[in-house]
Amino acid sequence: MKILVINAGSSSLKYQLMDPDSGNVFAKGLCERIGIDGKFTYKANGQTIIDAADCPMPTHKEAIEAVLSALVDPKNGVIGSMDEIDAVGHRVLHGGAKFTESCLVDDACKDAIRECIPLGPLHNPANLMGIEACQKVMPTKPQVAVFDTAFHMTMPAEAYTYAIPYEYYEKDQVRRYGFHGTSHRYIAQRALAILGRTENPEGTKIINCHLGNGSSLCAIKDGKCVDTTMGLGPLAGIPMGTRCGDIDATIMEYLMGRYGYDIKEMMTILNKKSGVLGISGVSSDFRDLEKAEAEGNERAHLALEKFFYEVRKAIGAYAAAMGGVDAIVFTAGVGENGVSNRARVMKGLEFLGAKLDPERNNTRGKEALISTDDSKVKVFVIPTNEELMIAKDTQALAK
Asked: Which of 4, 87, 97, 386 is exposed most, by the fewest CB atoms within 10 A?
């Protein structure tokens, strides 16, 4: 099968055409600045074919049309016609508590995505636009929604309930949802396969560290999520590139009163100006921070140490919550490529029986065991592949 995977943002649209069985990616790219002046990139067979600015894309419909036009182009396309696309899989940020797994898109599914817009106001409208744009251009093709929150719906009540008046959960669905769920699910499946426990996951305890510009950890017991660091929205948890992570809510009241910020300004600060960028004043990119740290920048050093401390603390908390840990997995941009970052996270976790092998840890972007042979806890690097997970779900449901 050939599955088109779509990840629509408010003014962007990422895409991949792939075979879910082999994992082969025929083509991929990005539509940017939708509704403004438009920019379109298209890569096929590992080569950049199109990298063009000033491509008119007033809406997501025109963006989808540009994607399909490139895919079937007589010279540079990878398929002969749109008939070769078997189905379309869409990443949807928020499914609330309604969706515990992916689903075929129908009117009821779209209505439920709309109902979750208050929970995902920045992403769900864009995800819906991507779905409806594809339906207009490819009305006969099955469309599948894959929810970022679905994997986390196995959390027990003590993990997802907030200690605020219970009526806000009952009436307004205020609870921990968690994100990066498609990535965490993919990693859980790969880790279980490596451990030889795919068919018998009962008793396994895995802590997945999805570390990038957006970061979250997930406690996976018996192959299912039992806790995760992100919450009602993706702002919670450990510090990230520009997001603050968990903070004392009193900080908001204090700063809003002191500087006259409204809630929109305050949330912009917490989402866009905080995290390692806010502490360092240098960058949200960990490579820039490491360079600045090496040059003696104390705030860059503090930003990194704060990040590693919070990741390490979350790992310890999840080991306690699950009553132990069999494997710790690093994934996403920082997790997959940050050799020194992984070492600094693991420093201090020896009490768990986790021992990092420096030579094995000297790896980037590929699946690897990086713990010592005598380590009681196995430590892995496993590159994530959310698109493949979406494609596999789409394939299963489209059939």
From this structure: 97
- Answer for the pair 226, 370: CB distance below 8 angstroms, yes or no: no
Taking residues 292-312, report their average pLDDT: 98
Q: Is the separation of the CB atoms in 42 and 125 below 8 Å?
A: no
- What is the Cα Rg of the chain in Å? 21
> For the chain, how many residues are written?
399
**Average pLDDT value over all residues in the chain:** 95
Considering the domain delimited by 198-381, tell me its CATH architecture. Answer: 2-Layer Sandwich (3.30)
Q: Please report where in the chains the tokens 């990092």 appear, as a residue.
A: 356
Cβ 238 vs Cβ 216: under 8 Å: yes
pTM of the model: 0.93
What CATH class does 3-147 carry?
Answer: alpha beta
pLDDT tens digit string along 236-273?
999 999 999 999 999 999 999 999 999 999 999 999 99
Q: Are strands 216-221 and 224-228 parallel, antiparallel or unpaired?
A: antiparallel
* Region(s) of the chain under CATH 3.30.420.40: 3-147, 198-381
